[in-house]
Structure prediction request, 110 residues.
Amino acid sequence: MVDARGTELADRVRALLGEEPGLEEKSMFGSRAFLLHGRILVGARKGGLLLVHVSDEQAAVLVLRPGAARAVMGSRTMKSGWLDVASDALADDDELMFWLDVAREDNSGR
Prediction:
């Protein structure tokens, strides 16, 4: 279940993505997931952690950014195209928008 920091992050994501055609929001995997044309783009998780879905190639580069790491759900490490971005790396909307743009760009090619 998403906590207050996760809810705040979901609100920020929702505001930045706006009325994008094909955007859908659902509760999934204990987070608020934002899907574009039926594919997960990002998720707002407990503690204000952002789950980002990108290609394996993009993930190999993006995991080097401050606050980014391969996503973990419970005791399981996710496949390489799933990243967690720490809340402190999302302090301003420009940084959050960077991650949303990367996910949207990558989603269009899948």
In short: The longest strand covers residues 39-45. The mean pLDDT is 91. The chain has one domain: 4-108. The longest helix spans residues 93-108.
